[in-house]
Amino acid sequence: MARLLLVTFFLATSAAIVSAECPGGYIQRESGNCYRAWQEQKHSCYYARNRCEEEGGWLVTIRNYDDQVWVNNFYRQHKGGPCGDKYWIGANDVSEEGHFRWQQDDSDVEFTRWTGGQPDNYYNEDCVVVNSNNMSWYDKWRKDVFFCFVCEMFPRSC
After folding, report:
1. Which residues contact 137 (CB under 8 A, 6 or more apart)?
2. Number of separate domains in the chain
């Protein structure tokens, strides 16, 4: 009986995993989350954060070098005409100056790719932008500086 329950649980879990999918406009990373490069026009960090949340996600989280390379390649492949080389990510120090956290889960940013002299908090900068040419990070003002961005979300079950 216990074996039958275990097999049933395994099959149900496998079916749930197989049936997980990304909503329209999002692309699933192999065995991972769903991503979308917002490419219609550049926006402020504030807008980008809210837009990703409205979609059920967050500005992209980059936990390690492999994530950085994958997200950067994704952005470069999917960015639209008005988008430049830079894009917003979910790292920010909105809550506490100098303490960068991820929008996704409010966890500490441990992996970084700050360029020289960054973060510098010039004009009270709270958001992080990546230069896709060299994957370097900069802190930027969130209200009147405009870039395209990448949203991330968990796959949804059918």
Report:
1. 89, 91, 112, 113, 114, 115, 118, 119, 128, 129, 130, 131
2. 1
- For residue 8, is it within any domain? no
Q: What is the torsional sign of CA 101, 104, 106, 110? A: negative
Q: Which tokens go with 124? A: 């009270």
Cα–Cα distance measured from residue 79 to residue 130, given in angstroms and rounded to the nearest whole number:
13
The answer to whether residue 3 sits within a structural domain is no
State pTM to two decimals. Answer: 0.85
Q: Give the Cα separation of 50 and 53 in Å (integer).
A: 5
Host domain of residue 136: 25-157
Structure tokens at 65: 């070098």
Instruction: Give the CATH number, domain containing residue 57.
Output: 3.10.100.10
Mean pLDDT by 10 residues, the chain (158 residues): 43 47 95 93 94 97 98 95 94 94 98 96 90 96 88 89
Q: Name the nearest CA neighbour of 129 among 81, 82, 77, 71.
A: 71
Backbone angles phi, psi at 144, to 5 degrees: -130, 30
Residue 109 domain-assigned (yes or no): yes
